[in-house]
């Protein structure tokens, strides 16, 4: 890939590095994925309800399971075309508890992986997929979701940068 080869030049690696670090920090600290993920759990080890304490194994909150089911008027259903109240196509998530747990884990783990630079591009693609699903669930939020998608696409295009576990493991793999 020519763009990737251009980015791997020595001057460009150092010139782009602040942008890469900034994008990774922005995704972790400024986008609402981690907070949204924490709301899906009643307890989460070392985070909720008390930070830095063993709070027991993660337990899914009733509200998250309820929102992923089809039993409320504002449920996480994919709506395509039409209005939110009467969509032309509406698809209900199967296995609401499993989907809520996967979303809750992904919203916490993927931003952490992006912040530390481990499996960065794959994690950004995971959050990009979640953003696309969120856009289909909440079609009116497209300006915010487009911003999130642009940030995540920037991480996919630029990569994690020199100060990341991906770069560290890449150096060890080349030896």
UniProtKB/TrEMBL annotation:
The keyword Membrane applies. It holds the Pfam family DoxX. It is found in: Cell membrane. It comes from the Bacteria. The chain crosses the membrane at residues 21-38, 99-118, 125-142, 148-169. Signal peptide: none annotated. GO terms for cellular component: plasma membrane. Keywords: Cell membrane, Membrane, Transmembrane, Transmembrane helix. It is a multi-pass membrane protein. Belongs to the DoxX family. This is DoxX family protein. It comes from Microbaculum marinisediminis.
């Amino acid at each position: 890939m020519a763009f990737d080869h251009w980015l791997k030049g020595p001057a460009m690696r150092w010139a782009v590095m602040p942008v890469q670090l900034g994008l990774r920090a922005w995704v972790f600290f400024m986008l609402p994925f981690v907070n949204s993920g924490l709301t899906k759990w009643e307890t989460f080890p070392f985070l909720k309800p008390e930070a830095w304490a063993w709070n027991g194994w993660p337990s899914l909150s009733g509200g998250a399971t309820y929102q992923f089911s089809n039993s409320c008027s504002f449920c996480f259903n994919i709506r395509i075309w039409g209005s939110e109240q009467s969509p032309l196509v509406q698809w209900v998530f199967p296995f609401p508890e499993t989907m809520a747990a996967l979303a809750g884990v992904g919203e916490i783990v993927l931003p952490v992986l992006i912040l530390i630079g481990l499996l960065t591009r794959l994690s950004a693609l995971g959050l990009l997929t979640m953003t696309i699903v969120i856009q289909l669930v909440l079609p009116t939020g497209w300006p915010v979701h487009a911003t999130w998608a642009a940030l995540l696409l920037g991480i996919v295009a630029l990569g994690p940068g020199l100060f990341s576990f991906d770069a560290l493991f890449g150096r060890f793999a080349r030896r």
